[in-house]
């Protein structure tokens, strides 16, 4: 899977939320100042070329939709991050993540519950 630029990721975020949308829907999803239609069109073309987005044509209009699930995209990135920056060690990543992100006690307890739950699933 290829990488998306930050601008392309923004378009994908809107498409993931919308599930599918025409150019006007995508533009409406942006806060002001909104990007130019030509900018979004260029980004969409690149994302179609990278096979992240496809469209259905209705006359002169195109309804765009994502070809990649958000969870698939980000899990690939997280796994790449662990591989490239933490010597393929999930525990090194977890240590860095929990120490360097200023998580509250509540957030850490929630993470612990998630991890404990996953451990139980793996034991079955």
From TrEMBL:
Q: What is the lineage of its organism?
A: Bacteria, Pseudomonadati, Bacteroidota, Flavobacteriia, Flavobacteriales
The record's Gene Ontology biological-process terms are:
negative regulation of DNA-templated transcription
Provide the family line: Belongs to the BlaI transcriptional regulatory family.
Q: Which Pfam families match?
A: Penicillinase_R (PF03965)
Q: One MF term in GO for this entry?
A: DNA binding
Question: By what name is this protein known?
Answer: Predicted transcriptional regulator
Its keywords, alphabetically, are: DNA-binding, Transcription, Transcription regulation
Q: Which organism is it from?
A: Flavobacterium omnivorum
Q: Gene3D superfamilies per the record?
A: Penicillinase repressor domain (1.10.4040.10), Winged helix-like DNA-binding domain superfamily/Winged helix DNA-binding domain (1.10.10.10)
Indicate yes or no for the key word 4Fe-4S: no
